[in-house]
Amino acid sequence: MSGLAATFRDELRRIFANWPVFSVLVAAVAFYSVFYPQPYLNEALRDVAVVVVDQDQTVSSRDLSRRIDASPDVAVVSVLPDYPAAQRQVFARDASGIVVIPQGFERDLLSGRPSPVALYADASYFLIYQKVALAVSGVTRTLGAEVMAKRLVAQGTDVAVAAGVADPMPLTAIALFNPQGGYASYLLPAAFILILQQTLLIGVGLAGTLLRDGPPPPATPLARVLGKLLAYLALEAFVVPFCLVAVPYLYGIPRIGGLFPLLAYAVLFVLAVGALGLVVAGTFRTSYAVQLAMAAIGMPLFFLSGFSWPAEAMPTPILWLARLVPSTSAIDGLVQIGQMGASLADLRQPAFILFALAVGYGGIAVALESRRGQGSSLR
Question: In the UniProt record, does the keyword Cell inner membrane occur (predicted)?
């Protein structure tokens, strides 16, 4: 026990005395947590510029144009009489879509014939394309239902019956767990976990290489590994609440889960990542090798996490590989607790995976520490 306590104190002292290690474990987390969310603060894309080509020039065509402009997702920047002029605006990047209202639009509506409206949208940026397509299709469907209902009322149909015939299955969409429907509320909770993992891996790896100055403390390999893990856990006891609680609150990201389940689950995450970091530190001999390796695997870890590349779409071998990365189960659990209000009892499987990773990587770290101790004694 004395060896464990000595290792704990020694590791904390060396972390605070070594600026490269401290800057990664603390300063980098603070920097990324505060500045990474900045591009996503607008949450949702609004008022995408589109051009309307009104070839009909009637009351109905102008009404459709006004309705499209009134929708929250798109904004009509100009109404032009011909398609080539609208095409030039799209090529100049002054607009992202063209709505063509054909000649005879009002006549076809009044006569009960289909009156197609053409949409040309820039699909090189899928988020913009989705907003334009959904907004224009929603407006045209609504206008079509109103025209049908008015025609039925004019023929003597009851107003309620006419509305039911025109729109027999009205849909009310409610965004659960993300009421703003925003990109930040979806992305940032998972991104914060990846930031914590990457900085902790690099920091522990640097600590194991930069601070490898002399023989290990007089303790068993198990006590040395546990002491180091406790030191990192003590440090993350301040970093994790800042990153997962304070910063989301600062940026207005919805959080309905309890604080205790969140922090209790985060303990498993920190232990698993810390143990993996000790394995990294025991594998590489220099700090440069640690930095290069962590930089190389940063993007693969991002895709394996399961929120940019859905786990359901992963091949089974890749899915098993992803489970070996602590952030995969951590994102499953911490997002469900924070954004969906899940309890610890609901997360038995990902919690068990994190526990198994902590034990497994911890065992490898003990073996590497034991080999290091044997090397030191031989010298």
Answer: no
Which has the closest alpha carbon to 188: 270, 264, 254?
254
Write down the pLDDT at residue 379: 46
Rg over CA atoms, the chain: 29
CA distance 59 to 255: 47
Q: Which helix (H) or strand (E) holds 121?
A: strand 118-121
Is 80 exceeded by the pLDDT of residue 219? no
Angle between helices 348-378 and 259-283 (to 10 degrees): 30
Q: Which two tokens stand for residue 250?
A: 């600062």
% residues pLDDT > 70 (the chain): 93
Lowest mean pLDDT among 42-51, 132-141, 352-361, 369-378: 369-378
Domain with CATH 3.40.1710.10 in the chain: 48-166
**Facing residues of 49 across strands?**
75
CB 338 within 8 A of CB 244: yes
- Which residue stretches of the chain are H helix? 2-17, 19-22, 28-35, 59-70, 83-91, 105-111, 126-154, 159-166, 183-210, 221-241, 247-250, 259-283, 287-304, 316-323, 326-340, 348-378
Nearest to 243 by CA among 190, 201, 207, 205: 190
Tokens of 116: 């197609």
Q: What is the pLDDT of residue 374?
A: 61
| CATH T-level fold of 48-166 | abc type-2 transporter like fold (3.40.1710)
**Contact 36/194 with Cβ under 8 angstroms?**
no
Lowest mean pLDDT among 57-61, 127-131, 304-308: 304-308
Compute φ and ψ for 101, nearest 5 degrees.
-95, 115
Amino acid at 154: A
Q: Are 46 and 72 in contact (CB under 8 A)?
A: yes
